[in-house]
Amino acid sequence: MNNKKNRMLEYLRLFRFQTGAATASAPLIGGLVIGQRDIFVLFILLIIGILYHIYVFVLNEYIDVEVDRKSLDLQKKPLVSGSIPRKYAQFIIFISCVCACALTIIFFPYPIPILFLILAIMLGGIYDIFGKKILGSDFILGSGFFFICLFGASTFSNDFTSITYIVCSIYFFHIIFNNAVEGGLKDVYHDHLAGAKTSAIRMGVKVIDGTPTVTKTFMAFSYGIRLIFIGLIFLLIFQQDPNLWFDRYILEISIVVFLTIILFVTLYKFLHFSTFDRSRLKKLFSTHEITSYFMLLIALSPIFGLWIIVFLFLLVSIWYLVFNIILYGTLLQPLV
């Protein structure tokens, strides 16, 4: 029984299941933004989003296994440790992709949703396979999330509004930041040893004898991407009814401003760390991620209403915290 339990936990770690709901929020919010309120349909979008998450992250683990072996911090990863054979990962990649496509064909048998899902799968795959070899690969992954969000919207209507495109663009720039900045800093040490050409390394970020060097170019890039994200949040707000916001949503605007401050404080901290501490970085990244997501929900609160906002926030945050505890015994800091 214990062996079966441990094997299941290893598979969930391979899936990076603690962030599955965060990825699945993209098609879910895409559908909600355009007016989808059918609970069953939203549940199907959630499942497809989780399958997309598994496909992208397991393929990433599979491709990066040799790079990960060069880091002492990553020896417990399922494919690195050998607790899950690589051939099983191949099967998971295939079956998650097939199931996502099958659910789409069954429940949304229209050309546009199928096209957007295929684009998201192709872009996610291109990033995983070539991401550490080609310039600008973070934008490829961001585009995958743009289309998975647009996929969610297209399952309800093809009459996309400006709000739909803004929300998809928010996911686009968020993923670029998440991957290029957070992922680049977190993995810079073993990426550098393995000769990977990530955005962080191309911009001169490196760790020598435990001392990190974060270049001004990388700092400018990081702040620039985050400023675009925040700009899109406020553009989303003013695409609705600015007068309504200032008349009735003063509290919400105050929260967005407060969360913006938290974003920049955490961003400053992980761009100016004096000693490479992967564990501390991951805690900062977790706080940063939750703050970013909450900002999007607050900006959408006039459209969604209180209960949908509460559900979406609890879905992602509780999912993340609970699976972190189950898989790693900690709230905010996955071990790998």
Structure description:
The protein is mainly alpha-helical and 336 residues long. It has one domain (2-328): Tetracycline Repressor, domain 2. It contains 16 helices and 2 strands. It has helices spanning 2-14, 20-34, 39-63, 65-68, 78-81, 86-107, 111-130, 137-154, 162-186, 188-194, 199-202, 216-239, 242-248, 250-271, 278-304, 306-328, and strands spanning 206-208, 211-213. A two-stranded antiparallel ribbon has the order 1-2. It is globular and about 55 Å long. The protein starts with a helix and ends in an 8-residue tail after the last helix.
Q: Work out the number of β strands.
A: 2
CATH class label: Mainly Alpha
| Assembly form of the protein | single chain
- In CATH, the homologous superfamily goes by the name UbiA prenyltransferase
Q: Which strand-content bin applies to the residues?
A: under 5%
CATH T-level fold name: Tetracycline Repressor, domain 2
How many domains, as an integer? 1
Enumerate how many helices there are, as a single number.
Answer: 16
Order of helices and strands: HHHHHHHHHHHEEHHHHH
Tell me which CATH architecture applies here.
Orthogonal Bundle
**Strand-pairing-aware structural class:** mainly alpha
What is the rounded distance between the termini? 25 Å
Bulk shape: globular
Rg from Cα: 20 Å
What's this, in brief?
Helix content is 77%, strand content 2%. With 336 residues, it is mainly α. The protein has a single domain, classed as UbiA prenyltransferase (Tetracycline Repressor, domain 2, Orthogonal Bundle).
